[in-house]
Specification:
The chain has 88 residues and is mainly alpha-helical. The protein is built from one helix and two strands, in the order αββ. Strands 1-2 form a two-stranded antiparallel ribbon. The radius of gyration is 35 Å and the shape is rod-shaped.
Length: 88
Amino acid sequence: MTTKRIYKKKINYEAEEKVNKMYREDIEKTDQIDRVEFDGIENEETSIIEKEKKKNKCKTLRNSKLMIKAAKQILSSCNFESTRFQCM
């Protein structure tokens, strides 16, 4: 009984080593492929993110310009001569 168990363990160990070796080789191959694909995706994503940032920057600039314009109009219609300024 004990010799069979040892023999089975030895076979399992050898099979496990073969599987691990094949698995490692497979991972190395797919890892190289994935890196190439991921770099392409990452570049696309970063370019999309950069475009969105530029769009948002333009929107905030436009909004801030509109707010400044509105503030100037409000201030120009206000009377600063009195202690409490009143808008007309």
